[in-house]
Amino acid sequence: MSHRFAQGASAAIMILASTAAFGQTRSQMTPGDQQFIKEAAIGGQFEVDAGKLAAQSANPQVKQFGEKMVQDHGTADAQLKNIVQAQGATAPSGLDPKHAQLRNRLASLKGEAFDREYITQMVQDHDEDAKKFADEQRNTKDPQLKQFAEQTLTVIKEHDQMARQIAGTMGIKVSARDKRG
User: Fold this and answer.
1) pLDDT over 70 for what percent of the chain?
2) How far are the Cα atoms of 67, 97, 102, 105, 106 from residue 117, in angstroms, in the given order?
3) pLDDT single digits (tens) 5-14
4) How far is residue 130 from each of residues 14, 29, 52, 109, measured CA to CA in Å?
5) pLDDT average, residue stretch 152-172
6) pLDDT category of residue 18 using cuts at 50, 70 and 90
7) What pTM did the predictor assign?
8) CA–CA distance, 38 with 21 (Å, rounded to integer)
9) Which of 76, 99, 127, 154 has its CB surrounded by the most CB atoms within 10 Å?
10) Considering only CA atoms, which of 118, 133, 132, 134 is closest in space to residue 174?
11) pLDDT tens readout for residues 28-85
């Protein structure tokens, strides 16, 4: 009888241990991770929306950059949604009031005024995003978020460099980038 009890107790411990390990994997998402997900999802959607507006530009560099934003941020948004869904949560969809206002401002501009404002905004956004993604990569304990932040950071840095290059050819002065990312 005690042998059966020991086997049963051993099996129960193994089940609890595997459940705890599973729970630990799923619960590694901290409030900081959740804030990052929210900001990344909203920021990514803004990049896609603004990139679609750039399709109207007469400037081929701005137009191509906008197309790249739609493609790359659309892909990153889908990856983030998959990670979040695998965790049993949902990523925000749509823009927050701040980003909706920025998108609406861009939509109200035409021609060179749009191009200048769009590229200036893209430099600022990608500078901020690089910091956020680098911080998440360093701080998260969630392996999927860490990998997502690392891979996406590489793309964000590329976008930042492209936006800065376009700004330079357009004669737009942008501030020096913080080298933390």
Assistant:
1) 81
2) 17, 19, 10, 9, 7
3) 444 434 333 4
4) 42, 20, 22, 27
5) 96
6) very low
7) 0.80
8) 26
9) 76
10) 118
11) 689 999 999 999 999 999 999 999 999 999 999 999 999 999 999 999 999 999 999 9
Distance CA 118, CA 102 (A): 10
Q: Give the position of tokens 């330079």.
A: 168
**End-to-end alpha-carbon separation of the chain, Å?**
62
Domains of the chain, start order: 30-169 (1.20.1260.10)
161, two tokens: 């460099």
